[in-house]
Amino acid sequence: MLLIRCPWCGPRDEVEFRYGGQAGIAYPADPDGLSDEAWADYLFMRDNPKGPFAERWFHAAGCRRWFHALRDTATHRFLATARLDEPLPEAGT
Amino acid sequence: MPGARPEPEHLWRSAEPKPSYEVVVVGGGGHGLATAYYLARNHGIRDVCVVERGWLAGGNVARNTTIIRSNYLWEASEAIYEHALRLWEGLEDELDWDLQFSQRGVMNLAHTLGDVREGRRRVEANRLAGIDAEWLEPEEVRAFCPILNVSPDVRYPVLGATLQRRAGVARHDRVAWAYATRASELGVDIVEHLEVTGFLRDARGRVVGVETDAGPIRAGAVALAAAGHTSVLAERVGLRLPLQSHPLQALVSNLYEPVLGCVVMSNAVHVYVSQADKGELVMGAGIDAYNGYGQRGSFHVIEHQMAAALELFPIFRHAQLLRTWAGIVDVCPDASPIIGLTPIEGLYLNCGWGTGGFKATPASGWVYADTIANGRPHPLAEPFSLERFTTGALVDEHGAAAVAH
Q1: Which residues does B contribute to its contact with A (CB < 8 Å)?
Q2: Which of B5, B11, B77, B165 could lock B181 by a disulfide, CB 3.0 to 4.6 Å apart?
Q3: Hey, what CATH topology would domain B10-64+172-242+333-391 get?
């Protein structure tokens, strides 16, 4: 089981969390104006890197707040976590 | 006759890559090997190289729970999975190999009224498509699988089940070895321990080969069959795909007398179990929620799955957990595969089989080979194009496919 450091609650077991996928996917400013390709890109296309990946997690059984994490998908190791009002963690930081 | 032939020292030729091939298949798993076999067998294209980064059949074809069935919901899925099942029914003769293919029946349990409605709907849909399917009431479930606890006072009571009697299991490694051996006999080169690190492009942007650790290999067509690592390869050629790679875990117990003569699956409680010929109980879990390329998952997923299994099968409480492992599954948003052409000329795609690719192996290879040989999607592959994510014509199989394999 992964040990995940919630930026609000500290290190907790993985079972307290829910996964939220890739971070930084903003809802389109003008959804009606999007082409089908752009809409498909927003809806379905996500990065799927082998290595550091910026993602969202939700502390469901704790503070019930979302936060950002940088995690290595090859090793499953958490490299950093951050509150939503902090800068998104980047690879190498 | 299956098994009659004396075993040779090496099943397939270990080849050195030539500078160029008509087709290079990237990935030496079940789907890649089946693709190479059918390119040679059905289309006379024998100038084929299968390039494998690790060892042959070391990925998902060696890590799945070997379940074979065709009882999907939508016509597009029914057509391709039933094509696979019909190929399975003749595959031991076709490949002259004992694949331990056993049509012992697969039950999908219903634990809620929603499950019951979905199950009955799927049975009717399967029958309309000419696929064998039955609905069983709890007493019939118990008659078909006497060790299953169907009492109403458990946490997840069994309210009924779908049954496909033609469904079953096969010995997964043998399938890969048989395809590899027969493809090799037909002239296909199989190169292990060679990673594709990039793609050769011509002035028009077409893919005309692959870069590898051992230098470039030119190809008339490059066919990806890399399962969980498809996104990694696609990124090297600038192709964005709707795939997420997850660990999918499975386990085996110690050996037992034969106690379970069929396959039992439950979507709702995330467990599916059969008993191997040797005697181990073979169980699969749900995917780990996070993206992951490590071939291991979190233990609480196994714990959750075992809790469900013990309640359904009280006699399993004596079983010991022997081994757990994970494969990396590439999952599409609609739980259906992507097979066909790509926006990049010369590059073909077969991926997104997610948690259930093993059962499809023969049909996947069959339609992919046909697609590559003719430069257009095989009719059974047409609904599974990459364009469906733009047109919205998704093939939503979350009910039939999402977890239970």
Answers
A1: 229, 231-232, 235, 240-245, 289-294, 296, 298-300, 330, 333, 389-392
A2: B11
A3: FAD/NAD(P)-binding domain (3.50.50)
pLDDT tens digits, residue range B39-77? Answer: 999 999 999 999 999 999 999 999 999 999 999 999 999
Q: Look up the CATH superfamily of B103-167+244-331.
A: D-Amino Acid Oxidase, subunit A, domain 2 (3.30.9.10)
Contact A44 B389 (CB under 8 A): yes
Mean pLDDT of B153-166: 94
Residue pLDDT, tens place only, A15-61: 999 999 999 999 999 999 999 999 999 999 999 999 999 999 999 99
Question: Which candidate from B291, B296, B389 shows the least CB-CB separation from A48?
Answer: B291
Nearest chain A residue to B246 by CA distance is A73
- Decide if A60 touches B, using CB distance below 8 A: no
Task: Please answer yes or no on whether A44 and B333 come within 8 Å at the CB atom.
Answer: yes
pTM of the model: 0.95
- Is B291 within 8 Å of A74 when comparing Cβ atoms? no
> Quick check: B294 and A75 CB within 8 A?
yes
Flag if A45 and B389 touch (Cβ within 8 Å). Answer: yes
Query: DSSP string covering B335-365, please?
Result: S--EEEE-SSTTEEEEE-BGGG-GGGHHHHH
CA dist list (Å): B153 to B22, B28, B136, B348, B363 = 61, 48, 19, 52, 42
**B272, B405 contact by CB (below 8 A):** yes
Query: Are B231 and B241 within 8 A, CB to CB?
Result: yes
The answer to whether residue A44 neighbours chain B at the CB level (below 8 Å) is yes
What's the topology of domain A3-26+37-83?
Folate-binding fold (3.30.2270)
Residue of B nearest to A56 (CA): B290
> What average pLDDT is seen over chain B?
94
User: How many other CB atoms sit within 10 Å of the CB of residue B319?
Assistant: 20
Q: Is B59 helix (H, G, I), strand (E, B) or coil?
A: coil
> Of the candidates B277, B265, B225, B282, which has an alpha carbon nearest to the alpha carbon of residue B64?
B282
The verdict on A77 touching B (C-beta cutoff 8 Å) is no
Q: Which residue of B has its CA nearest to A13?
A: B300
Question: Which pLDDT belongs to residue B398?
Answer: 84
pLDDT greater than 80 at residue A5: yes
Say if A50 is an interface residue toward chain B (CB within 8 Å).
yes
B169: helix, coil or strand? strand
**Nearest chain A Cα to B391, which residue?**
A36
Contacting residues of B for A15, CB less than 8 Å apart:
300
A14 in reach of chain B (CB within 8 A): yes
Task: Give the pLDDT mean for B77-82.
Answer: 98
Can you say whether the dihedral through the CA atoms of B260, B265, B268, B269 is positive or negative?
A: positive
Give domain limits for chain B. Answer: 10-64+172-242+333-391, 103-167+244-331
